[in-house]
Amino acid sequence: MNREDWNRRYAKDELFWSGEPNLFLVEQVAELLPGRAIDLAAGEGRNAIWLAERGWRTTAVDFAETGLDKGRRIAAERGVEIDWVPTDLLEFDPGSGCFDLVLLFYLQVPWNEMQIVLGRAARAVAPGGTFLLVGHDRRNLKQGYGGPSSEKVLYTPDEVAAELGQLEIVEAATRLRPVEFEDRTVHAIDCLVRAVREP
Question: Tens digits of per-residue pLDDT, 153-164?
Answer without folding.
Answer: 999 999 999 999
